[in-house]
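Progress note, sequence design subtask.
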């Protein structure tokens, strides 16, 4: 396994002071899978004070003795932990003497492997890596009792690594899922984000449900399980949400789009009226937006994140038919959602469409909507673009309001469209003085020529935008 030079140097410094030092956890797992580690963690039999002496620019600010170097690499003393009364924190932490003792407290076998010149693998984690299995170290129930969040971590590793959870570990999670209630919402949120941002996000959410964890994280989503829709839908509410998320993950959409894809129909069970093929869900987007806000507030998401996702859920049901919707209604939609969120809203709509069983995510009318959105979002070509206004024209020519001012501005716009560099106040004021000496007929002729040039540019830009989205 290839270890970067800077990591080797850290290990060498510890060993020169007669301490043991090993790479541990995720970085070893990643290297064994031929992946580039995101983080490097080192375990040693040196205590925090001894580590700090060897690395004087380091700092330590936690109860586990972890010392962080300026480059972000963490060095932690071998340690053992006793009894977790609150299912979150050890009642007592003690420094261990051997790497084997340290590995015995870790969560899963694939994370309980250490490496220096040789592998230290007391729980056969390398075998489980090869078999693609997530298995608790020792007795699974003991590991989850120590930190109940490990149950979510099992799901996260299964989703991220595309592994299966070993049967005994699964049974322990199902039996003790309620322990998750002891964990802070912030820690649950962070694990949930990692699951949702994985390539197999939908499988991760389904595994949370299957293991009985989802009802302690997003009970509102659990509500939709088994709720059928109507004649317009081939999937039930829960399955549709999962398939929408699956598409969002496949397209590598951002967190906002993935959350909105999962939550966009979360209000349907509470808005359902009637049964069978003719059931209705009127107002589910409004109810769903409120529920999304409650879910994300409960999980301690930031205000910005909540506002973003709530808007996407609230307006995901926007109506659009090529021959019926006006440019002004599209402008209103853009204003409500925010120009910066329009692409995300369209992404949610695509995920919704695929999650409904449609073969194409982007039919003609959705491409046409993208064209209209881009069209109405552009600043129109008008005299407002000029670095001079009607009042200034009147001041220069010493005239009162009248049609002459509009003609002068139209002519100036023609100059600027032909050469954007001319859009500076000094040039424009000089041209105003020249134009002021022309007759009304001459101004009309120049203004008409300018308008024709502007129409050509507008037509050309519109054609380019249409071609971009393959619309006519």
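Output:
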């Amino acid at each position: 396994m290839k270890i970067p030079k800077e990591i080797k140097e850290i290990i060498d410094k510890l060993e020169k002071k007669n301490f043991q030092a090993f790479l541990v956890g995720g970085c070893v797992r990643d290297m064994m899978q031929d992946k580039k580690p995101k983080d490097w963690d080192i375990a040693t039999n040196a205590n925090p004070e001894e580590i700090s002496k060897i690395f004087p620019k380091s700092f330590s600010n936690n109860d586990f003795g972890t010392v962080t170097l300026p480059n972000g690499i963490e060095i932690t003393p071998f340690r053992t932990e006793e009894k977790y009364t609150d299912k979150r924190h050890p009642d007592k932490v003690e420094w261990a003497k051997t790497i084997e003792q340290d590995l015995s407290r870790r969560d899963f076998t694939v994370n309980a492997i250490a490496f220096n010149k040789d592998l230290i693998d007391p729980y056969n984690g390398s075998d489980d890596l090869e078999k693609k299995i997530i298995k608790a170290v020792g007795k699974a129930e003991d590991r989850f009792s120590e930190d109940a969040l490990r149950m979510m971590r099992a799901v996260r590793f299964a989703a991220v690594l595309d592994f299966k959870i070993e049967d005994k570990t699964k049974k322990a999670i199902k039996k003790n899922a309620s322990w998750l209630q002891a964990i802070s919402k912030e820690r649950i949120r962070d694990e949930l984000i990692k699951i949702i941002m994985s390539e197999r996000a939908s499988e991760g959410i389904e595994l949370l449900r299957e293991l009985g964890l989802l009802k302690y994280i997003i009970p509102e989503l659990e509500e939709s399980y088994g709720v059928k829709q109507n004649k317009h839908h081939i999937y039930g509410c829960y399955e549709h949400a999962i398939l929408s998320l699956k598409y969002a993950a496949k397209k590598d959409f951002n967190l906002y789009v993935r959350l909105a894809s999962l939550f966009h129909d979360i209000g349907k069970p509470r808005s359902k009226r009637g049964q069978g093929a003719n059931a209705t869900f009127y107002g589910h987007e409004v109810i769903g937006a409120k529920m999304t806000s409650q879910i994300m507030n409960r999980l301690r998401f930031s205000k910005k994140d909540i506002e973003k996702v709530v808007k996407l859920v609230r307006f995901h049901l926007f109506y659009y038919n090529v021959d019926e919707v006006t440019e002004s209604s599209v402008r209103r939609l853009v204003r409500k959602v925010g120009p910066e969120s329009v692409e995300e809203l369209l992404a949610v709509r695509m995920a919704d469409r695929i999650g409904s069983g449609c073969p194409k995510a982007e039919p003609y009318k959705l491409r046409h909507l993208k064209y209209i959105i881009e069209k109405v979002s552009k600043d129109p070509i008008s005299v407002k673009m000029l670095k001079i206004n009607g009042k200034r024209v009147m001041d220069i020519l010493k005239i009162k309001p009248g049609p002459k001012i509009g003609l002068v501005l139209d002519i100036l716009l023609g100059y600027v469209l032909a050469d954007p560099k001319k859009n500076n106040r000094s040039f424009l004021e000089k041209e105003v003085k020249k134009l002021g000496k022309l007759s009304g007929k001459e101004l009309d002729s120049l203004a008409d020529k300018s308008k024709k040039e502007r129409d050509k540019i507008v037509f050309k830009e519109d054609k380019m935008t249409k071609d971009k989205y393959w619309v006519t």
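The longest strand covers residues 21-24. Work on this subtask will continue into the next period as scheduled.
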